[in-house]
Design a protein that fits this description.
Strand content: 35-45%
Distance between the termini: 32 Å
Structural class: alpha+beta
Number of helices: 2
Radius of gyration: 14 Å
CATH topology: Gyrase A, domain 2
CATH class: Alpha Beta
Order of helices and strands: EEEEEHEEEH
Shape: globular
């Protein structure tokens, strides 16, 4: 069984008999809550094409509870961008999160691709965008 990255809940293992998108978090991996952030204010997304299919997403928000909330915002941006470009997947390269006052900023890099990329930090763009909408997290 190959570990995959659930769009909002972090690294997980997709069970062979599980429904599409269902996963069980890996041991020791914190998961995001299933409810939207009541006090979150999403301040915008900046998208920068770095090289070929490597894309940088800079996001800002207030009301985040932890860096994971900012990471989810960047993940949602990456998923929507992949769909806009006609790709179905993205692989997380890195995310840096910083807080200044009440404003949280994320600087994330993803590789987008048409086929499921190698690695454990991958996302299915269509599933992720759907989850982002359910969570109230905006995309590009």
């Amino acid at each position: 069984m190959m570990p995959l990255r659930h769009p909002l809940h972090g690294a997980c293992v997709i069970a062979a008999s599980a429904a599409l998108g269902a996963c069980v978090p890996e041991a020791g991996v914190a998961t995001a809550p299933a409810t939207a952030l009541a006090k979150a204010d999403y301040l915008g997304i900046e998208t920068i094409l770095l090289d070929g299919d490597m894309v940088n997403f800079r996001v800002a928000m207030t009301g985040a509870r932890a860096p994971a909330d900012v990471e989810a915002y960047g993940r949602c941006a990456a998923a929507q961008y992949a769909l806009i470009r006609g790709y179905g997947f993205a692989r997380h390269v890195r995310t840096q999160v910083a807080k200044a006052g009440e404003t949280w900023r994320g600087d994330a890099v993803y590789l987008i691709s048409a086929a499921l990329p190698r690695g454990t930090r991958t996302i299915d763009a269509e599933v992720t965008v759907g989850d982002c909408g359910e969570q109230g997290i905006p995309t590009v």
